Structures are given as structure tokens and as C-alpha cells.
Amino acid sequence: VPAEQEQRVRTLDLDRDGHLLVVGAARSGRSQLLRTLAGAAAALSPADLHLYAVDCGNGALAALHHLPHCGAVVARAEPERAARLLGRLWAEADRRRSELASSGFADVAEQRAGSPARSRFPHLLLLVDRWEGFTETLGQVDGGALTDLVLGLLREGASVGVHVVLTGDRSLAAARLSSLTDSKVVLRMADRADVSLLGLHPRQLPGEQPPGRAVAVDSGREVQTALLVADPSGQAQAATHGELGRLAGERFPDVPAHQRPFRIDGLPASVGLDAALARVLAAAGGSGLFLPFGLGGDELDLVGVDLDRTPAAVVAGPARSGRSTLLCFQARALLAQGTQVVLAAPHPSPLRELAGLPGVRAVLTGADASLEQWQAALAGDGRVVVLVDDGEALVDSPAGPLLAALARGQSGRGLVLAGHPDRLGTGFTGWQAEVKRARQGALLPPQDLPSGDPVGLRLPRSAVGGPVTPGRALVNTGLGSPVTVGVPR
What we know:
Elements: E1 20-23, H1 30-41, E2 49-55, E3 70-75, H2 79-103, H3 108-113, E4 123-129, H4 131-136, H5 145-156, E5 162-168, H6 170-174, E6 184-186, E7 213-216, E8 222-224, H7 234-251, H8 273-278, H9 280-284, E9 290-296, E10 301-306, E11 312-316, H10 323-336, E12 340-345, E13 360-365, H11 371-378, E14 384-388, H12 400-408, E15 413-419, H13 431-436, E16 441-443, E17 472-476, E18 483-486
Parallel strand pairs: 1-5, 1-6, 2-3, 2-4, 4-5, 11-15, 11-16, 12-13, 12-14, 14-15
Antiparallel strand pairs: 6-7, 7-8, 9-10, 9-18, 16-17, 17-18
């Protein structure tokens, strides 16, 4: 403050301030400002502040995951994960609006002041680095759906404790979102004249702006971003988050699980078969008919369906898509629950290699298995699930009525049908049509928008046309919303 010959610490007061826009050119200190904010948050309890980040730059925010306050750091190459994060934040903002209205609180500051510690809303802080990178990548998903979610949070999030800090180049100043918050700072611009987009005159900028030197638009005062450690290198600043995370964990060791940040985990590059099978019994409950598809969801749980509730499921995918691998995992998971299986593989399939395992009643090969063979395989008591690979080859099987009865439901029985999505149960009648009516299953990988039909999914455009990641599947657990899972192998 030159008039008072004094330097003051500028802070982001989440009880008072809404959002913050940070505008500047590349290498002007945008990412460092976000790292500093996250580092300062480590002084607060994870029960009071939850951090989330969307890093559309070069990974400057990756180290934030060391902080116990941080629920996710999402990269621009993770559109599915970004959609989950932004959707979850929007849902939380919507939930809070309802609770504040029903409780008579005007905003989150009143709620926090008038509630016991265990029920106070934590502030949620979303950091988005490089808006220009966001608009070119994540902003293109589903016709701009993720951009709309960010704009919605800027319009309605602050009053319920959901705050956004955005960094970007001049496009951020010119964007419609610039009008959604009064709190803005300007770092060095590539063209000083561009500050007029924010209501400043170029003469209000200092003669030189080293990295981190900014001007606050509301006051015209200069601001210098603090460093976490004296070494200004990105590596040193990022390493400090690890130490801050360790110290915060020691300082706040007993934060209850319900007060910690929700997680939006990314899928691992591969999922081990043995590790996934070890989790089956914990996830299965008591029916013995839990049919898993893989690890997925926000916290990488084992995602599956209970065939005791809905007795049929589809695994759809073209040849060499991994559907047989998924069927083998499912067969082993059912065997681990003490459920017997009948396997049908009319064409060569890894499913045939399970013959002889305890609990495998029969492996039927060829498309000409007789009704008597099917009846013998299914005779007797006990839980039994039939898993069929290359099911399109069995569309006219003499066992069709028997399989249709399984799909409609028999106590302790289930049916899993795998095949090409374009060829499974193309009509409205027959046993495969009965299976498809269950509207649950897995798709590997989506080829086009109609390929979701066999498993009851209406696919967004973002689900098709992109690069195919081996070992991934879209799952419908009966709710109609796709969940991406990693298939164990």
C-alpha cells in the first residue's frame, strides 16, 4: 500500500470472497499462484477445506494429491474423470442449496457459524489451471457440457461454499465467465493493451512484471505471489506439497471419514486378476450371485450387479475387445462365491480353459449342443450361472426356451450373454431379447452410439470416436448411467 508505506498480505477469504480469476501469459506465474493457494490451505483442517484441481497445463498441480485436503487432480487427458468431478461438485452445490433453504441459512458463512463442527459445510475449492487448455480439450466434450458445469459453479457456487479459481491467458479475460466474479488479478500479459478487457488501463501496470507480480483489478494495487520455498523452480515448489501434506496429516490425524474430501480416483493402467478376485467376497454380500465387471467408480470399488435381483446381463463387444477376458474373470468370481457355472463357447475362447476347475459343471462347445446336454448341465440344485461367449452363434439354439426362462428369473440361477453388440438379439423375441431386457451389463469398447443398446445405455457422443484404451469397459448396473471400469486380467 504505497500511500501508507506498508505491505500487507493479500488473502482469499472463502467466507467473504467468491471466486478468483488469474489472467496472464505463459510463464507469468499462473500455476505458482495456484500452488501457493493450495499450500496455504494445508494450515486448515481437512474438515474445513476440500481441494480439487483440473490441470490443463504441464502437470504443475500434480503434487497437490499429497495434501489430505485434496480429493482429485484431474488432467486434461481424462475427460471421463473430469466429468465425474464437475458433476459431483455441481450435485453437492445443489444439495447444499436445498439444505440451506430448509435450515433457514442465507449462505454457507451463516451455516458454518451456526452449526456444530461435525455438521459444518466445508469450503470446496476448485483450481483450474490454463483455461485456454480446458476449452480446447475438456471444453469440447459433449458439446461443451463441462464448460457449462464450470459456468454454473461460478454463477451459483460461492453462496453454498463451492469456489473456483481459474487461471488463463487473454481468452479468460474476454470470456463470458469474466463477468461472473469481481475478484481478478492480472499477471504479465503478452500484450499489455489486453488489460483493457478487464477494465484496467495499461498505465496501471508496473513497468516490469517478473513471474508472480500481479495487479488486483478491484483496487489497482500490486500483488506479489508468495513462494512456498525460496527455490522458485517448479520441482522445488511441487516437492513442498509432499512435506506440507505430511505435516497436515500429523496436525489433523483424526478427521472423521465423512468430513474428508470425496475422492474422484483415476483408473489404473491395468487391474490385476488376483487383486480383483480378493475383493469379490467383500463386495458380494450374501447372495452368491454377485457378477463383477471390474474396478471403477469414484473410489475404485468393484463394480457389479446382483443376479439374484436381476438374473441376466450382457457383455457386448467386437472380437478381440476383451469380452472373453471379462467372462473368465466373472466365472472365477462366481466360483469364489461358491456358485457353480455352466460355460458355453461355440467358438474358440479362453472360457474353454476353465474346464475342470471345481464348480465348473460343463463346458459346451460348438453351436450344436443338444437340448439334452443343456438340461443335464443345469440339472440339480444349488446356485448356477450360465456364461455364454459368442452368443450370436447360439441365437437358434434348441435350448432357447430354457435360456429364456433363466433370463426371466429362476431362484439361484443367472445368465450372462456375451457377443458382438450389432448381432445380439436383433429381434424382439427369442432368448437373447429376454437377456437384453435386463438392461444391464458391460460394453467393450463403444464403437458407435447404438452399440450401447444391448446393455441399456444411451451413450454420449464423447464415449465414441476417441482412442480406445485396452482393458476398459462401460458398465450399466441398471441405473442407466455409464460407469467406466478397468477389467481385471
